[in-house]
Amino acid sequence: MTAAHVTLCFLLRDGADGEHVLLGTKKTGFGRGKVVGVGGHVELGETASQAACREVMEEINVVVHAKDLIPAGTVDFVFPARPEWNMATTVFLTRSWEGEPSESDEIAPAWFPVAQLPVERMWADAEHWLPAMISGQRIAVRVALAADNENVADVHTIDWVDPQR
Q: According to CATH, what is the number of the domain 4-96+122-159?
């Protein structure tokens, strides 16, 4: 079974207490109730960067331009107990956008200090790769989830080189 191609985009800004990242509480569908990054499926005919820009607009009502996306790496999620959930994720960061993030039917966005990510409310894998990507590491990560589809069974990380460079 092939993995679904998805994308995530993390908006970053400087705050009084250091760097902040925009995350959102998922209101519907897969991951409902969890704090997640903004993103979703790459549609037929779209590039990962086009999908990231579209998803940011749909989920938090701001415009991000593809030229402002910073490739951060990839995360492959493997769900041995539910292989139909497997995802190949392209991750982007950005410090530039137009508009103020606001709630949609799918996401309730909020800013969090990078030093205090709400990991207890996120998927268990996030703490294994998100801080590294935000800090500037460019990595490829393979996360194998446990049989409960919640906890992490294994994380494998390698340095990643952007194929577009």
A: 3.90.79.10
